[in-house]
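Morning, I've got a small favour to ask if you have a moment. I've been staring at a protein lately and its backbone has me curious. You're getting the sequence in one-letter code plus the fold written as tokens. I've dropped the whole record in just underneath, so have a look:
=====
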Amino acid sequence: MSDAPLMLGVSGLRGIVGRSLTPDLTVRYCGSITTWLGETVGRQPFVLIGRDGRAGGEAVQAAATAGLQAAGARVCDLGVLMTPSVGVATDMLSADAALIITASHNPQEWNGVKTIIRQRSWTNAGDEDVDACAPSATVADEIISRFKAGRITWASPEDITDVWHDFEAPEAHCQRVIEACERLLGVENYWDEIARTNSVGRVVLDSVNASSAAADALFFEDTVCRAVQLHGEATGLFPHPPEPTRENLSQRGGLCDAVPGLGADVGFAQDPDADRLAIVDENGRYVGEEYTLALATEAVLSAMGARAQGQVVCANLSTSRMIDDVAARHGARVIRTPVGEANVVEAMKQHGAVIGGEGNGGVIWPAVTYVRDSLSAMALVLALRAREGRTIGELVDAMPRYAILKRKAPLSRREDAQPTINRIAAHFSGKRVDLQDGVRVDFEDRWVHVRASNTEPILRLIAEAPQEEAAAELLEQVSSLVH
């Protein structure tokens, strides 16, 4: 169904509810995950499940839970919560895996199943360590292959257990973020440090009526920050298109209006499952998602001082080169990966990175969780604001400045992108060409990246240069090679 695509990849399963994403398909997909997991761990697997709160998600979760139970998993329901909170809970409860019913930033009619695994629990080694993360591309491919082949082992009645519930993950997540900040800053109380510097008075949050509404309120409860929530009703009905882009946050009465209108110091916008964060400064200027990782990285490296020398930061190929400049300022280095949280995390674990993430506003801070985490990003940005004594706008203006432009082109299947990728690689064969994920071409002062999306049936084209005109020119040149 070209008008109702089903996306299967490293980011999990996504489709349009009632069309490409149906209850029977969801049951089979989750049964495939459980069967693979049971064979891998050699016992009855323990799996957590939560959802992002979008309307209709309860039915998708019911089907997913049925698939887990019917294939023999022990299941714990976490309720409505942020994806990074699920990551924290997976470590906290030493679960083998977790499922999040979410389509992330996709529109209202979409939903899906995102997977987190915790390999450390499979070997009973270091249960207190942070380990939960998205599955690698290899593991994702194994699950998809099993699902397509229908290789599912359904459990007998005596092996099907009741679902139990645990709703403590949001509080544990908030506490873990605070404790990580206190260790980083070398202070006894994070909020006392914010109060001491008198750096942040009012914060405006756009929770898009989804999973972050409760956690945001909990995080700022009884603190020096007066938090105002826009769209914090948790109805699951998005008040605007849920991706936290300039266009969506600049609508009349939106976050860009609310921050200066309320005299706030900063505005934060999350997507439905709250693994991404966009920032609006005190003047209502949309800072955007590209700056989120740069500011969070500056917060971590600057707080480390001399210890930042030689440290590693990981980012995907589509992330702004601001991250390279920030790392170089502190003597750290950046390792680039294919797009996808799992790819970034795999490199972070391999190289012992102190922070990583993606230019879509996804910050991964292993001191908290190996899952993209908007709550960690918020806390780090506020810590940087307190440490530097500068406004958010001033912090942003002090960052290296580049123009990054993004376009989309329709794509029926991921495989259809390959001829375009080959043409672009051949056209720029004299330049530095990276084929890890689609094709990225680096010039002396600019770059362009073209790849098939993991989450939508589109081709993504991204170009960055010191000036917008140069980025636009490069994007036009590459667009002419897309057929």
User: Anything to note?
Assistant: Residues 6-167 form a domain with the Alpha-D-Glucose-1,6-Bisphosphate; Chain A, domain 3 fold (CATH 3.40.120.10). The two ends are 22 Å apart (CA to CA). The mean pLDDT is 94.
